[in-house]
Specification:
- This protein is an alpha+beta fold.
- The protein has one domain: 60s Ribosomal Protein L30, Chain: A.
- Helix content is about 50%, strand content about 20%.
- The chain contains six helices and five strands.
- Helix 3 links the parallel strand 2 and strand 3.
- Helix 1 packs antiparallel against helix 5 and helix 2 runs parallel beside helix 3.
- The longest helix has 14 residues.
- The chain is globular.
- The chain starts with a helix and ends with a helix.
Length: about 120
Amino acid sequence: MNNTNAFFGTLGLAMRSGQAVVGEPKTRALVSGGKAALVLIDETASANTVKTVLDKCRFYGVPAVRTAEGRLGTAIGRPACMIVGVSKGGLGELLYKKVVENKFDEIHLELNDEQKQANL
């Protein structure tokens, strides 16, 4: 199993264990409540949805990740899914760690201005 498949497998496990929420409203609530470790956005999500979720993530300091088309929905068993929020805790922190440590072709970390400056 390669790292990308391991990442999406862990995401599926987070979903089955109740540590992830699906959809924009639930994800925004998770982020606003300070309980989100990571937000994942399918690359085919609408521009309005992406802007809304990324603005919320940047305001609350939650990392956001863009995924390749269809991979997000397939990983959690809901093909039409565009947004997933992962709760703080073991699996959420593990997923974030995997994104930071690995260079995935299908997963891209969205950085805010402060994070971009820190990486320079």
